[in-house]
Amino acid sequence: MKDIVRDGDPVLRQQAQNVSFPLSEEDKQLAADLMEYLEVSQNPELCEKYQLRAGVGLAAPQVGVSKMMASVLVPAEDENEKPIFKDVIINPVIVSNSVQRGALTEGEGCLSVDKEIPGYVPRAARITLKYQDVDGVEHKVRLKNYPAIVCQHEIDHLHGTLFYDHINKDDPFHREDDEVFIY
Ligand code: 4LI
Ligand code: NI
């Protein structure tokens, strides 16, 4: 957690750079580190031992590297089942958004934002995401609900946007028409 860049650092507001393939050794290590943080943070014993905050997504700018790379690890409700989504997404692009909007009922948190910021963060309820994995293989996936929200939050980081930028300043708990609540 000591290595996580906090809000106020300009790197969090920069547009990240595209990543080229094959990955350099440095970029491979970065990808592994981003996923390892999430894995360790989601393990209750290790999380406690290293004094981490649990996360389901972590973007490279959050460790001070302005590159188009983020790890996403959304565990299944039953921890013995395989994760709902697990990958390092590189050069991700949202190629389509649903008209329907959705927001996490409890609001969003971010490893780079220490204080809780109340309010709904309206996003697309479903997205089609294109990205490359660490091997350079192109993926095009349709995501809904929680994994869709997490990927949008992480991709925002790659464009210098933080979740609270989307909260309605005058009415943080404003509900849009036809907005679905997630989790
Ligand atoms: C322990 C072990 C309640 C409050 C519910 C915890 C394993 C908030 C939700 C986790 C909230 C795991 C999360 C995100 C929210 C809140 C992220 C707990 C880790 C829930 C992830 C990126 C927003 C993602 C659902 C202010 C660090 N994560 N909760 N938002 N979990 N976690 N975000 N919202 N209210 N943030 O934070 O990783 S998208 Cl998996
Ligand atoms: Ni974040």
UniProtKB/TrEMBL annotation:
One of its GO terms (biological process) is translation. It comes from the Bacteria. The active site is at 154. Keywords: Hydrolase, Iron, Metal-binding, Protein biosynthesis. Its cofactor is Fe(2+). It catalyses: N-terminal N-formyl-L-methionyl-[peptide] + H2O = N-terminal L-methionyl-[peptide] + formate. Its EC number is 3.5.1.88. GO terms for molecular function: metal ion binding; peptide deformylase activity. Binds 1 Fe(2+) ion. Fe cation binds at residues 110, 153, 157. Pfam families: Pep_deformylase (PF01327). Removes the formyl group from the N-terminal Met of newly synthesized proteins. Requires at least a dipeptide for an efficient rate of reaction. N-terminal L-methionine is a prerequisite for activity but the enzyme has broad specificity at other positions. Belongs to the polypeptide deformylase family. HAMAP family: Pep_deformylase. This is Peptide deformylase.
